[in-house]
Write a structure and sequence with these properties.
The protein is mainly α and 189 residues long. Helix content is 73%, strand content 0%. It is built from nine helices and no strands. It starts with 8 loop residues before the first helix and ends with a helix.
Amino acid sequence: MGRPMQFETDTAVDKAMELFWRQGYAGTTPQELASGLGIGKGSLYNTFESKHALFMRALGRYSERRLEYLTDLFSAPGPIRPRLKGAMTVLAGLGEHRRGCVMVNAAAELGTTDDEVNRIADHLFTQIEAVFRQAVAQGQESGEFSIDRGAETIAGQLLASVIGLSVLAKTGGPGERFGAVVDGIVDGL
């Protein structure tokens, strides 16, 4: 009989997600993962099978959290405009850490070679776009946003803006510049 597991796998996945977010997939070694998770390399492989499998779990966790955040944000009462600005800011990874969005980072790093990353990224981006479409439609119905363009078109533009802002966030630059961009995009609706 093997030794009992001495760590919580959900906590380990969270810690791994942070490492991958900071360093990227290629820049994170199995030894760094084991050290960061506070486990041995054997436990890492016994529990998660491979670095790639752990990365997929981390991306899945990230997706779940982002969708939970959006669901909570847009199910609350009140005007859509400030919530949409907040969502774009959070999703683009703007703020102090300047790491961008972990999913955009993963797609940029591995999208041309890893179909699993593409599948997870596409699923998250499709879900975000659907939330944006619903929020815009609600804002149009309430008179908060213009009805000159369809909610579906606007949602696609918002998603593309979030992805672009995420890339820009990683390059640095003044944070207020990005805030002004988000304000301009949403205020233009």
